[in-house]
């Protein structure tokens, strides 16, 4: 071979060396990709746990006993025996109306009764004497009949006088206005010195607020669910369903109420039925007329599979979750759900106890591909979620 040929061959070899190195690198790359670890995902183990289904409704608080106190006689208001907001007992005096005029009327009617009694006694004596005189013919029949008539007239006068005395005593009794049951006194617009009477309006309202009643409309759907769960009728429903009251600040009243009445007709415009419940109100946190949220909850929790809403995914075929199966490979499980507690759903079909479902990192998981499952870690107590920190 000539010198020129050797130089050409050498140049060709030098040109092929970089290409061989590049080819070697390309052949070594796939093993590096195959050795990458499967993506990590957070999982939880499917378990059954006690859960009490519940439903919420807007209701109105009503006092079981409520009375608007009014004056039944006219007179000066001489005393008010309570402070607004006080607890009052049955029989306690609330107001006193000037009693002197009514006491005088009672005394007058008493005197009239005594006079009528004396007149009747005299007429009776005259009849008895006349009967003896009539027997001896010393008194005519006509005169005797007059005496009997006078006796009857005096008997009627006495009955009328006694009735007027009773009426005067009743009127006198109205001057002392008393409460008829234990309760709480409301606002009173009148003070001593005012003239009050039947036309003066409400002097004060007294309500019994412990226990207290809550009235709320229930949809036909929820009512059917309650009745089906309580095959024993309304009494059984009252035992199976707990009534909780959510206060305006979002907290639940710490006492549990009881259903006591379901109306017999439905509202045609809303297709709902009015339901009443009695709720203990020892702390007096519920007020007559107040708007509250009523929570109906099953008294006996049922065992059910409950999962976080973060595990739920939806596509055109419906609801599903991603399950870590054999060899840590991802599987799709179609499920049926129902409403659960806040942030959770109840799975009625499609999952079994012991399965692992992905709750975080599902965007990195692909059906049929392996993953690295790790137990979901609860956030440290007092920790602020990342999205909340960013929002701040």
UniProtKB/TrEMBL annotation:
GO cellular component: plasma membrane
Region (Disordered): 363-392
The Multidrug resistance protein MdtA-like alpha-helical hairpin domain, residue ranges: 110-175
Residue runs in coiled coils: 106-133
Matches recorded under Pfam families: Beta-barrel_RND (PF25944), BSH_RND (PF25917), HH_MFP_RND (PF25876), RND-MFP_C (PF25967)
Domain Multidrug resistance protein MdtA-like beta-barrel: 211-298
Any one GO MF annotation of this record: transmembrane transporter activity
Domain Multidrug resistance protein MdtA-like C-terminal permuted SH3: 303-364
Domain Multidrug resistance protein MdtA-like barrel-sandwich hybrid: 66-196
Residues making up the signal peptide according to the UniProt record: 1-23
Keywords of the record: Coiled coil, Signal
GO BP terms: response to antibiotic
UniProt-annotated location(s): Cell envelope
Xref: Gene3D superfamilies: 2.40.30.170, 2.40.420.20, 2.40.50.100, Helix hairpin bin
PANTHER family for the chain: ACRA/E-RELATED COMPONENT OF DRUG EFFLUX TRANSPORTER, MULTIDRUG EFFLUX PUMP SUBUNIT ACRA-RELATED
UniProt similarity note: Belongs to the membrane fusion protein (MFP) (TC 8.A.1) family.
Protein name stated in the entry: Efflux RND transporter periplasmic adaptor subunit
Species of provenance: Neoroseomonas eburnea
């Amino acid at each position: 071979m000539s010198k020129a040929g050797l130089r050409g061959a050498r140049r060709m070899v030098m040109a092929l060396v970089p290409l061989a190195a590049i080819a070697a690198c390309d052949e070594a790359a796939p093993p590096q990709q195959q050795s990458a670890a499967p993506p990590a995902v957070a999982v939880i183990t499917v378990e059954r746990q006690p859960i009490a289904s519940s439903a919420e409704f807007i209701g109105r608080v009503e006092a079981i006993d409520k009375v608007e106190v009014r004056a039944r006689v006219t007179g000066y208001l001489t005393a008010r025996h309570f402070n607004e907001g006080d607890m009052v007992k049955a029989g306690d005096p609330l107001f006193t109306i000037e009693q002197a005029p009514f006491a005088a009327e009672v005394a007058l009617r008493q005197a009239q009764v005594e006079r009528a009694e004396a007149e009747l006694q005299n007429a009776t004596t005259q009849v008895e004497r006349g009967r003896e005189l009539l027997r001896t013919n010393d008194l005519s029949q006509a005169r005797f009949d007059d005496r009997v008539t006078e006796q009857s007239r005096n008997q009627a006068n006495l009955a009328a006088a006694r009735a007027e005395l009773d009426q005067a005593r009743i009127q006198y009794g109205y001057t002392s206005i008393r409460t008829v049951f234990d309760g709480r006194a409301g606002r009173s617009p009148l003070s001593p010195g005012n003239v009050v009477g039947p036309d003066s309006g409400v002097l004060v309202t007294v309500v019994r607020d412990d226990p207290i009643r809550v009235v709320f409309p229930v949809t036909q759907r929820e009512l059917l669910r309650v009745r089906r769960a309580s095959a024993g009728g309304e009494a059984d429903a009252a035992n199976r369903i707990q009534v909780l009251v959510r206060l305006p600040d979002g907290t639940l009243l710490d006492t549990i109420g009881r259903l006591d009445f379901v109306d017999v007709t439905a509202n045609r415009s809303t297709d709902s039925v009015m339901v009443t419940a009695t709720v203990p109100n020892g702390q007096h946190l519920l007020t007559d007329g107040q708007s509250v949220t009523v929570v109906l909850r099953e008294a006996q929790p049922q065992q059910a599979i409950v999962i976080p809403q973060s595990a739920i995914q939806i596509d055109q075929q419906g609801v599903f979750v991603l399950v870590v199966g054999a060899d840590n490979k991802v599987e799709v499980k179609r499920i049926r759900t129902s409403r659960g507690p806040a942030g959770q759903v109840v799975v009625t079909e499609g999952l079994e106890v012991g399965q692992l479902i992905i709750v975080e990192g599902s965007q990195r998981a692909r059906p049929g591909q392996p993953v690295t499952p790790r137990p979901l870690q609860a956030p440290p107590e007092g920790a602020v979620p990342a999205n909340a920190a960013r929002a701040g």
